[in-house]
Design brief:
Plakophilin 4, coiled coil, 71% helix, mainly alpha, 2 strands
């Protein structure tokens, strides 16, 4: 049996439904893309902040190590020795 012919109104309605559905998917895709972009930007900011914090820590440790080296090399340390293995440079008696 042949398929019934659709009237132009029904065909237009079908096309509008397809267009609306397509537009809805495009909006969802746009929202997803915007959410991903926002997430990436937030992660970039976090990475930059952590990088700065890490550099500050690295500088602190480098300064502590240098103080420990200078303390170990300086004459007159007596019976004390400088410990460079602790979190902070401390003198061990």
């Amino acid at each position: 049996m042949p398929a019934p012919e659709q009237s132009p109104v029904t065909e237009e309605g079908l096309l509008l439904t397809i267009r609306d559905s397509s537009a809805g998917r495009k909006m969802e895709t746009d929202n997803t893309a915007n959410n991903i972009l926002a997430s990436v930007k937030e992660q970039e900011l976090q990475f930059e902040r952590l990088t700065r914090e890490l550099e500050v820590e690295r500088q602190i440790v480098a300064n502590q190590l240098e103080r420990c080296r200078l303390g170990a090399e300086s004459p007159g340390a007596g019976s004390s020795s400088t410990c460079c293995y602790s979190a902070t440079c401390s003198t061990v008696v």
